[in-house]
Amino acid sequence: MRTNADRLLTQVLVGEVWPPLSDRFAYRVDGDGAAFLLPGMGGVTLGAGIGTPVTGHHADHLEPGLSVRHRDQEADNALQFLTCVGNPVTVLSGPATGATGRVIGQHAYVLVDLPQDAMAEMAPGDRVAIRARGQGLRLLDHPEVTVKNLDPTLLDRLRITTGPDGRLRVPVAARIPATAVGAGTGMVSEYANTDLMLPTATPLRIGDLVALLDQDHRFGRTHRPDWLAIGPLTTGDCRLFGHGPGPSTLLTGPTHAFDLVDDPQASDAASGTQRPDDSEGQRL
């Protein structure tokens, strides 16, 4: 795969694990009108990570692993926009100092996956460094495909290749119709992710690559027939109407530029940690 990766720079960004937040009223109301109070965004979330189901948890806006941001708003914007899926992360403070992991995507925070034993020693306020590299990446033999939020070292792990017909061949775990696309539409694709209104029981897992049909994510997330966007599912359950598990955008372009290969095991495998079901499927 010919790219311009040799021309990309690396910037070291710093953030901290942000605590879960709530207002004094606590409860929210789901799409069926039922009140609920559940853990979700922010903090250190154990028991969810690469390979765990995106649904079935008693959670709301589930963010697996570490939820990272910067206290300065403009610095936090840079953290969101410049961090890419697959970027290496090092813990800078607290009992887990020196532990390493990977960025798995963006939501309200930058989401980081570390080994569970390292995360178990972490707490809100612990600082991390992210080696941000990937924005500006281009696939030189596929000018119609726009790359977003992708560390170039992930290309091989994703098994992205040029097919015999010259199209970009990408394995995906599912093809998602445009009717399932919810919150995130209209936002720039370097920020947060696209919430999908998926069934409450789905075989999809955190890290699975999915293709969003009829979506153009070049300059913002919008509906466009005969285009698509591809990315890994980075968040889990959400009870609010119009929200749900969603992918961070990695690739987007006209449908004819892609050769999608249906593969239930297609995963970004960004974290470098073992899946719970490591006996089969794509692994690092």
TrEMBL record:
Residues 275-284 have a biased composition (Basic and acidic residues). InterPro entries: DUF4438_C (IPR048399), DUF4438_N (IPR029433), TM_1086_sf (IPR044909), TM_1086_SG_dom (IPR044910). Residues 27-156, 158-266 form the DUF4438 domain. It comes from the Bacteria. Residues 251-284 are annotated as: Disordered. Pfam families: DUF4438, DUF4438_C. This is Uncharacterized protein DUF4438.
